[in-house]
Amino acid sequence: MKPTLGVCYYPEHWPEDVWASDAARMVEAGILWVRIGEFAWSRMEPEPGRFDWGWLDRAIETLGAAGLRVVLGTPTATPPRWMLDRHPDMLALDAKGRPRGFGSRRHYCFSHMGYREESRRITRLLAERYGRNPHIAAWQTDNEYGCHDTVLSYSDAARDGFRDWLAQRYQSTDALNRAWGNVFWSMEYDSFDQVGLPNLTVTEPNHPHLLAFRRYSSDQVVAFNRIQTEEIRKCSDAPIAHNYMGRILDFDHFAVGADLDIASWDSYPIGFLSDRLEETEAFKRAFLRQGHPDNQAFHHDLYRAVGRGRWWVMEQQPGPVNWAPWNPAPLPGMCRLWAWEAFAHGAECVSFFRWRQAPFGQEQMHAGLLRPDSAAAPALAEVMQVAGEIADLGEIGQAQAPVALIFDYDSAWAWEAQPQGADFDYFRLVFSAYKALRRAGLSVDILPPDTADLSGYALVLAPGLLTVGQPLVRAISATAAQVLLGPRTDTKTPDLSIPDPMGPNIEGLDITVALSESLPPGIEVPLEGGGRFIRWFEHVEGTAKTRRQTKTGHPAIASAGPLHYLAGWPDDETFHGIVSDLAREAGLSPRDLPDGLRLRDTAGRRFVFNYSAEPLDWEGKTLPAAGILWEEI
Ligand code: GAL
Predict the structure, then answer these.
(1) 403-585 in CATH: which number?
(2) Is 507 a catalytic residue?
(3) What is the pTM of this model?
(4) Which of 322, 377, 473, 585 sits most deeply, having the most CB atoms within 10 A of its CB?
């Protein structure tokens, strides 16, 4: 499929007489898609039950008539002020029990049934009015579920919903008490109505209580989203997307994605490096204006899986953002590089946020493709360059990657409930595996935890999985791939207790994690032959063969044939060595790429990206800073 470009536009922010020239300029820049509407509830329904669709009708008509395809967003991330008068208890409460008030956005609790119905009502009205409009070519539900830490709410509505959810899941309080081990500290319940939310306890709440609340909260996002997809599908055949975020794991994106046609995510590489990723200050300085060389690719691969192959970048950073601690401008060429990297990972569309920088509101310092005075901002020329290159290059076919990496939201919640070490973080662990694979120059498919078929992969990694379910167990025993499990993989029950026999309990791999240690910063477990574990180290026993050991003689990797268990968290250098060895055994040719150079193989083409601020060599050619090349393979 030939990739496309898009842009986010807010007609309600601009006088109506500029819409037509904006649309013409978008088309001239090579843009095909325009996303609108997602925050405009107060203009669609200025008072309860009084609607003003006229402006939206005209905006859609103007954009469509110019040749643009419209993505229409449901406006439920920004309930208008009057909504609070109708539903004073619709606000989410934070863990301290304080309401998260009006005056920005996402001020709603997913468990509030009254607000859910309001969300159904406005979605139905939009779908009825625009579902057959020829210019509406896709939908977006809400905006960035989970943004601003909004999945967890400690409201009465959440408490009541949680009790029902528990009753359905466990059927009896005896079963719940057993599963959670509530005999400990006399925490037993004899009615579901006694169960509270896991906040405001004297010391830490029981881990399974926390984990159950995370699962419940995730299910509320799924249910909230499903109401919208149901209403839209009654009136429209256009595909439905949601715009997910980077490193937000508070709900199961695979479960939300199952109700959608397209996954999309909002990519702000420079903002994320500064406020969301753990790297050294020197590394952050080196990539200050480019973003982390692996973070975008990771999320592209993740959302390709969430979208079952169909995915977009719904919002692409075009210049400085406003929300990170510091907001530098991208290096010239980076907007082009980010777009091409997304296309190389299979994006159908890269849509820039936003068309024109707003002169008002919280985001007035956030760049757009145009300045507030409508002059072109630096990114516009890069968008036009990409449009020209798409026309030259044509289709980009995807190929199955040689490496699979399993990703599981439930495990993220489990280890957040029970980190055991202050810096044990599931995303960070999986991302360190991903970085090692990328440095080795390998393309990666991220797969969900219920994956039942691993055929075609040479190497499979499953770090930190809470449990390995039956489909994946069977897929592991059927695959010819080298499989690296651990650390922490399959060491607990689904309710976060220690299983008997102790885990992991993976057929064909006889090992047991007998003891786990977490290690503070600066403390490491050196490995024989070089390398080290940091943060986490497991003492394992069993008949599996010690493939590598620590200097103290403990197994560091224990193996049975192609099945391997990694008994600690390797630092970046060590992880690269480990995955490279396994990749070689699997018949692949791992490399040792410099930090800024990254590869992505598609069907018939290799893309090479230079994320560094300096020129770098690639097989006899020199790539300038922010340079890209593609070659036949
Ligand atoms: C996204 C959000 C947009 C805008 C943007 C600014 O998280 O979806 O509405 O706020 O960030 O970078």
Answers:
(1) 3.40.50.880
(2) no
(3) 0.98
(4) 377
